[in-house]
Design a protein that fits this description.
single chain; 137 residues; mainly alpha
Length: 137
C-alpha cells in the first residue's frame, strides 16, 4: 500500500466515524444521553485522533484531543451532554470533517478555518475549566 492508499483509508474511516458521532449526538438530542451513545461519541473522536496521529496530522490531533478531553468529563459524569454541548460537539465534528476534506485534497490543514478552530477550542476550554483566551492558532 502506498501513502495515497493509506490517506484514502484514513479519510474513509474518519468520515464513517464522524457520521457515527453525529448519529449518536442526534440520538441523544432525541431521547437523552445514555452510556452507550456517549461512549460511541468518545470512541469516534479517540479513533480519529489516533489515526490522524499516525499520519502526523497534528492539527487534527490537537483539536480532537481537546474535544476528547471534554468527552472524558462527560463519560465520568462531571459534565452533562446538554443542548449547548451537543451543539458544540456537532460543530466540532463539522470542523473535523473539513480538516479531513483538506487531507483528502492534500491542502494545508493549519490555515483551514483557523478563526473558527480557535472559537471552537475556546468554547471547549470553558468546559475544561481553562482560560479560553489562552487558545492560539
Amino acid at each position: 500500500m502506498d501513502m495515497n492508499e493509506h490517506r484514502h483509508l484514513l479519510v474513509q474511516e474518519a468520515r464513517e466515524l464522524l457520521q457515527e458521532m453525529q448519529n449518536a449526538v442526534l440520538a441523544i438530542e432525541q431521547s437523552g444521553a445514555d452510556e452507550e451513545l456517549i461512549n460511541a461519541i468518545f470512541r469516534a473522536a479517540h479513533t480519529i485522533k489516533g489515526s490522524s496521529g499516525l499520519f502526523g496530522l497534528d492539527t487534527i490531533v490537537d483539536f480532537t484531543h481537546v474535544l476528547e478531553s471534554v468527552l472524558v468529563k462527560v463519560r465520568g459524569g462531571e459534565l452533562d451532554l446538554d443542548k449547548t454541548l451537543t451543539d458544540l460537539t456537532l460543530a466540532c465534528g463539522d470542523h473535523i470533517a473539513g480538516l479531513i476534506d483538506c487531507v483528502e485534497a492534500e491542502t494545508e490543514l493549519e490555515s483551514y478555518e483557523s478563526v473558527r478552530r480557535i472559537q471552537l477550542l475556546q468554547q471547549l476550554q470553558i468546559y475544561l475549566g481553562a482560560d479560553p483566551q489562552a487558545v492560539s492558532v
